[in-house]
Every structure is written in structure tokens, then in C-alpha cells.
Design brief:
Radius of gyration: 21 Å
Helix content: 40-55%
Structural class: alpha+beta
Distance between the termini: 45 Å
Strand order of the largest sheet: 4-5-6
Number of strands: 7
Number of helices: 4
Largest sheet: 3 strands, antiparallel
Order of helices and strands: HEEEHEEEHEH
Strand content: 15-25%
Length: about 150
């Protein structure tokens, strides 16, 4: 099997093996939930080691003193030597403040890895409970009308 076939076979296997991650942390400023980086890293390491990949993430700073730009580079390297590379600009309110830049790095590490590896995030159980309730209600409605319904669309 060629290297590119092996790469795609392993990448497809990685994508199919991905677990949904639970949004377990709360952002107090936006009152929203998110998956912490440690959980994304744990899942990413599991997926990569099982499917012949390794990932590397690193910040990249370029430009002159007047216009410094920062990006995050994420690479997914396969045992065959083939790779996928992504680069995204780091956005921080104050790029001279290491705390704010660190927050931007953490945020982008989480999302770039999740995107590259197809890691999905579960919203609250509340969503799934509502979804199940709607499905149950539809099933009851179907039963009540004994199949005499038509879905429009």
C-alpha cells in the first residue's frame, strides 16, 4: 500500500474513533461552557498514538517591532512522513500582555486540534434531553394518528 493510501486509511480510522468531549468548564465572563485543553489533549494523544500520528503545536511570531504578528501552527504528522499543517492568527486584546497572548494560544490550541482531529464537543445534557423529548413526542403523535400523517418539505 502506498504511503498516501496508508495516510488516508489511518486518518479515516482516527476520525471514526473520535469521542465526543463534554463541555465541563465554565467561562465566568461569557457564562458559557467549554471543553478544557487538558481534555482535548488527552483525546488527541489517544487518537494519534492509536492511528500512527503525532501532533505538534507551536506559536510563531514574525514581523518587525512596529507590527508583530503571532500565529499558532498545528501539524499532524503521520508515520509515513506525510502531514497536515494549519496556521491561524492569534488574536489578543493586548499583544504585549503575555497573559492575554497565553489565553489566545490556549484557545487556539484547543480549537485547532479539535478541528484537525474531528473532535466534537457535547453541549449540555439539557440539549440531548430536549432532543429525546421531542423524538418521544413525535413517536407518540405517530402512534396516535396510526400512520395517517404526511411529512411536508
Amino acid at each position: 500500500m502506498s504511503d498516501s493510501n496508508e495516510f488516508f486509511k489511518d486518518y479515516q480510522s482516527l476520525l471514526q474513533d473520535t469521542n465526543r468531549l463534554k463541555k465541563s468548564e465554565t467561562n465566568p465572563f461569557f457564562k458559557s461552557k467549554y471543553v478544557p485543553l487538558k481534555d482535548v489533549l488527552k483525546e488527541a494523544k489517544r487518537l494519534c498514538s492509536k492511528n500512527n500520528f503525532v501532533f505538534i503545536q507551536r506559536p510563531n511570531v514574525y514581523g518587525d517591532k512596529e507590527d508583530i504578528q503571532s500565529t499558532l501552527i498545528t501539524e499532524l504528522l503521520h508515520i509515513s512522513g506525510q502531514k497536515i499543517k494549519g496556521e491561524i492568527k492569534l488574536v489578543a486584546k493586548d499583544k504585549d500582555d503575555p497573559q492575554k497572548l497565553g489565553g489566545a494560544i490556549t484557545y487556539m490550541r484547543r480549537y485547532s486540534l479539535s478541528t484537525m482531529l474531528g473532535i466534537e464537543e457535547d453541549d449540555d445534557d439539557e440539549y440531548y434531553n430536549k432532543k429525546d423529548a421531542i423524538i418521544n413526542e413525535f413517536d407518540e403523535w405517530k402512534e396516535k394518528y396510526n400512520g395517517q400523517y404526511r411529512i411536508m418539505g
